[in-house]
Amino acid sequence: MVEFIKDNLILNDPMIVGANISILLTVIVLVFVLTYFKKWKWLWTEWITTVDHKRIGIMYIISALLMLFRGGVDALLMRAQLTVPNASFLSSQHYNEIFTTHGTIMILFMAMPFLLGLMNVVVPLQIGARDVAFPYLNNLSFWSFFFGAILFNISFVFGGSPDAGWTNYAPLAIEGSPGPGINYYLLGLQVSGIGTLLTGINFIVTIIKMRAPGMTLLRMPMFSWTTLITSFIIVFAFPILTVTLAMMTFDRLFGTHFFTLTAGGNPMLWANFFWLWGHPEVYIVVLPAFGIFSEVIATFSRKTLFGHKSMIISLVVISGLSFLVWVHHFYTMGGSANVNNIFSITTMAIAIPTGIKIFNWLGTLYKARIQFTAAMMWALAFIPTFVIGGVTGVMLGMAAADFQYHNTYFLIAHFHYTLIAGVVFACFAGFVYWYPKMFGHKMNEPIGKWAFWFFTIGFNVCFLPQFLLGFAGMPRRVYTYLPEDGWTALNVVSTIGAVGMGIGFVIIVYNVYYSLRHSKMETTGDSWNGRTLEWATATAVPPHYNFPVTPVVKDVDAFWQMKQEGTANKKDIEYEPIHMPNNTGTPFVMSIFFFIAGFGLVFEIWWMAILGIAGSFGCMIFRSLRSHVYDKGYYVSVEEIKRLEQPFHKEA
Amino acid sequence: MENTNKLNTNVPLEYQTETGKLNILGFWIFLGAEVALFSTLYAAYFALKDGVMEGPLPIDVFDFNYTIIMTIVLLTSSFTSGLAIHEMRRNNIKAMVVWLVITLLFGAGFLYMEIAEFIHLVHSGATLGTNALWSSFYLLTGTHGVHVAIGIVWITLIIFQALKRGLTPDTAKKVFVSSLYWHFLDFVWIFVFTGVYLLGMVK
Amino acid sequence: MFKNYKTWLIIMLSLVSLIVITVLGFQADLIVLDPKGPVGEIQKDLIMYSIYFMLAILVVVYVLFTYMVIKYRDHKNVDSKNYKPDMHGSVKLEIIWTAIPVIIVIALAIPNAKALYDLKQPPASTAGKEPIVIHATAADWKWIFSYPEENIETVNYVNVPEDHPILFKITAADSMASFWVPQIGGQIYGMPGMVNELYLQVDEPGEYKGRNSNFTGEGMTHQQFNMVALDEDSYQSWVKETQENAPKLDETTYEKLMLPDNVGEMTFSSTHLDFVDHGIDATYAMHIREKYGVEIKGVKITTEEYKQVSNNGSHSNH
């Protein structure tokens, strides 16, 4: 045991030792604080076992911000290494590990949970539901994501990080990478993938079955629509990832031959399967982002969304096409001209529905009264920046030209323009916009705008030069270059931009602290003069049952319409007891078993793997036998409702 | 969530509560995900099956009669599972349990035959690590087999709950959902049987 | 802080000027847009063609965006004519902004398709000349070039005659690598057990940098080579000289090349095609590494089988 720890704990790299020590200190401080203030019980009953979608959403967002920090540090380290030619700040191996974890973390452990967090907080409120359809599964989703993320993240201090890129192509990831790093990648993603799949199922059922009376599908707000479509993509794309990861895990642990070079394995199959999941995955993160922008832009334009129906149609078209373009990630694999031609056309076709959306947003701004709040500025900045990502996407989609863009910084710049301008801007916009819904006070606006300017300007300064670096022939994933390559000046500019983004992020985190100390508490549930049902609650932070009485919907902008008619916030409501689900600790325990199983498999410690798998099945059996007790739930009494709805009554 | 205990007695028992309705829809969607999962395994098998370098070919080691019996056993279990639901609708718990037990016996029989077949294959030199064809064969049929095994444990648990608590909306929902699962495994097997076994024996 | 839209506008403008400065300042280095051969030329033309469309789209969106943001900002005296909160959409407009992108996509798809088919053919400008066949094999982390006709093998550089079509047959011994000479033409993957063909041609004598652009591990950054274009006579004399003076490539030397490492330039007067064809045998390099004790994942079982096979082989020889 001691030998095992000694062998795998990474102590030869001063930066990682530093990280080790700081993690240890943080844990000690956390444990001390929780014990000193006697908060363990609070943590367990109020948060860990909660089935309240809003709290689960907040936990997702906090985890995502932590992961954004980790992925951001990775990014800054890479930029530091690339600023000048022949730098020796990072070794090749260390650089490879860092870009691998940067990519994986940003997509799977930052962008996805951030959006899932916002979906969790907002969607049930937006459709007028009490909670999601399966609150128990929702808790399980969060914890399996969380423990999957932990499993992935401990790799860099224990055993070594994965080092084959986030795309993890075979044969490099099998024959070329003997350490436990790739195993961490495979199992970390596998464990967190369970959570994502369950979330997908959960939101489909929630949205199909639990909309408030009168909310037809065509009256459903855009963010809920994007959540629904995204959930469908998740349900059909994530099983592909599950199988693909399992196949490589088997190759590495049990000597099978799926992607190996020997005995008939086919490394190209990995690339195909990976992108069959991977391209829909891009839309899994970008569609909800579109939904957030639609909400924010409509609210701060003081105008209903332009072309609601064509927005929905384009969403559906995009989701369908997203499964038909995976080959464009490897035109260079030697496919025939016919194949490359067909996939060029499907790829460019995605630009059509996306273009419709861009023009609809512009249409929403037409004859509007635009208010430049921090949330709106993120949403506005999205349009011009994302269009750069979009048009370069079309350029990359043209296979004959892609032979020159492939694997270059042109590609890097393109997907950062889509993923940062699309997804990260949306996360920040949604975070600021729904912040009062989560915490009862707004984020400080001036500080928020400072963060906005640092981040967006930094972003453009960082990534615009990278398009040119692509044309200058700089490939991605190189850890250094020579002075005579002529890439130095652009790289210096790029690093300066990255620092700007880093400062922007720090300001956002500072703003959370500052707003907690100084912002005024909201007195109503309607912080921004909103249009959709999440703003229709009596208090800023809705009580766990959300609505004392289920609202009735008559229009697309349900709450706006109620305010116009004066039917919002009616007095003298007859309350009835509300049925709510119980908290649950099983998913947390089950996820710990997932983690144990994953860890055992990473290091091929079989007893541990078996223990973990058996434990997870044990938890499932426990749940199956007790579900009738659990499903009974409990009732919130009328007195309790009256007490919780008090602020509204005072006002009235 | 709301009105979980309010019953709508005009529909079958398993649909009477809100939870029941949500669970059943959720399970259908879960089966959609399972279709994607098995399709991927199936696609992997077809992508890799011609990558044979050494080791036996399917045509050398498959036994037509044996797999036909396996298929009939599993199809029968799917039929008896349907009869169990029929009895559940008639509120005849005893007959339902009897049919469920018969379903499980057939399921266990199928599993036994599958394991015996795997042992036979391993002895003929077709192991998990022999080549890409056999790796993908075991992954596809093995994943199906693991599903059957999980189904057996799950349905056993449900039988105990039904016997202990009688036919309530909650237990009826569980029986119904598990029978959907069981039919689904049958549906997957038909593809495995035709795609892997029959086509494997053609050439 | 930025309540005033003018501040906002100023910063927007500074951003735009920054873009312009970046573009102008670094124009000179863009080798992809300065090709020295017909393949790169086709690709550059296609890139420039698409860039004009894209710039047009950007201009339309930016003009509309700037107009909306300035014209319809919220201020005290918004006229009711300029504020229509219930505007739901416009079928006419939506048809327009669906149709135009469709036309643009068609306008891009046609030259793209033409280029795709052209790139599969030898360059049209030298249609009369028989292409020289060169096998390019990536092995962690070097490029090995074999001239089967001339019986020459080079490592990390490749000499070619100018104005002459070259047919590269690209494969790999181990990881999936991408063969790329930015100034001559776009890339294609080399994969073990497979051969991809790529026609290239250099129109001006000179040295052009080439590399593996696909990530293959620690030494990938340094997996570079020089493509040297010589005039016809110098090329022929290089061939003759190499055939006479360069050492033969023996199996031990070649086995050393299969180990993951970066190496310098080498020249031989025979090719590895005599003892292995990586385009068919995907496992050769793995077995060599096993032999030299390099740790490899995923070949545990086959290695034993391999030993068995080779043992059996030696038995039957006795």
Summarize the structure.
The complex is a heterotrimer of chains A (652), B (203) and C (318). Chain A has 652 residues and is mainly α. Helix content of chain A is 69%, strand content 1%.
**Protein chains sharing the most extensive interface:** A-C, 108 and 108 residues
> Which CATH architecture of chain B is right?
Up-down Bundle
Distance between the termini of chain A: 66 Å
Kindly provide the name of the CATH class of chain B. Answer: Mainly Alpha
Number of strands of chain B: 0
Binned, the helix content of chain B reads: over 70%
Structural class of chain A: mainly alpha
- Number of helices, where a helix is a run of at least 4 consecutive DSSP H or I residues of chain A: 22
Please give the largest β-sheet of chain A.
2 strands, antiparallel
| pLDDT averaged over residues of chain B | 91
Distance between the termini of chain B: 55 Å
**Main sheet attributes: strand count, strand direction, barrel closure of chain B:** none
Task: Itemize the secondary structure elements and their pairings.
The complex is a heterotrimer of chains A (652), B (203) and C (318).
Chain A lengths: L1 H7 L5 H23 L3 H9 L4 H30 L9 H35 L8 H19 L27 H29 L12 H33 L12 H35 L6 H14 L15 H13 L1 H15 L8 H24 L1 H7 L3 H31 L5 H27 L16 H31 L39 H8 L12 E3 L5 H17 L3 H27 L1 E3 L1 H7 L1 H6 L1
Helix pairs in contact in A: 4-5, 4-6, 4-17, 5-7, 5-9, 5-15, 6-7, 6-19, 7-8, 7-19, 8-9, 8-10, 9-12, 9-13, 9-15, 10-12, 11-13, 12-13, 13-15, 13-16, 15-16, 16-17, 19-20
Chain B lengths: L17 H31 L9 H4 L2 H26 L3 H31 L8 H34 L3 H34 L1
Chain C lengths: L4 H21 L12 H34 L19 H29 L12 E8 L2 E6 L4 E4 L1 E5 L4 E7 L4 E5 L3 E6 L5 E5 L5 E7 L11 E7 L1 H14 L5 H7 L8 E3 L15 H8 L8 H18 L1
Parallel strand pairs in C: 1-5, 4-10
Antiparallel strand pairs in C: 1-2, 2-3, 3-11, 5-8, 6-7, 6-9, 9-10
Helix pairs in contact in C: 2-3
Q: Which terms summarize this structure?
A:
heterotrimer, A: mainly alpha, two-stranded antiparallel sheet, C: 318 residues, alpha+beta, 6-stranded mixed beta sheet, 5-stranded mixed beta sheet, 7 helices
How would you explain this protein's 3D organization?
The complex is a heterotrimer of chains A (652), B (203) and C (318). Chain A is mainly alpha-helical and 652 residues long. Chain A is built from 22 helices and two strands. Chain A has helices at residues 2-8, 14-36, 40-48, 53-82, 92-126, 135-153, 181-209, 222-254, 267-301, 308-321, 337-349, 351-365, 374-397, 399-405, 409-439, 445-471, 488-518, 558-565, 586-602, 606-632, 638-644, 646-651; strands at 578-580, 634-636. Chain A has a two-stranded antiparallel sheet with strand order 1-2. In chain A, helix 6 packs antiparallel against helix 7, helix 9 (267-301) runs antiparallel to helix 13 and helix 13 (374-397) packs parallel to helix 16 (445-471). The radius of gyration of chain A is 25 Å and the shape is globular. Chain A starts with a helix and ends with a helix. The mean pLDDT of chain A is 92. By secondary structure, chain B is mainly alpha-helical. Chain B has a single domain (11-49, 68-201), classed as Cytochrome c oxidase, subunit III, four-helix bundle (Four Helix Bundle (Hemerythrin (Met), subunit A)). Chain B is elongated. The termini of chain B are far apart. Chain C has 318 residues and is an alpha+beta fold. Helices cover 41% and strands 20% of the residues of chain C. Chain C has seven helices and eleven strands. Chain C has helices at residues 5-25, 38-71, 91-119, 232-245, 251-257, 284-291, 300-317, and strands at 132-139, 142-147, 152-155, 157-161, 166-172, 177-181, 185-190, 196-200, 206-212, 224-230, 266-268. In chain C, strands 8-5-1-2-3-11 form a six-stranded mixed beta sheet. Chain C has a five-stranded mixed beta sheet with strand order 4-10-9-6-7. In chain C, a hairpin with a 3-residue loop joins strand 6 (177-181) and strand 7 (185-190). Residues 299-318 of chain C have low confidence and may be disordered. Chains in contact: A-B, A-C, B-C. At the A-C interface, helix 5, helix 9, helix 10, helix 11 and helix 12 of A face helix 1, helix 2, helix 3, strand 7 and helix 7 of C.
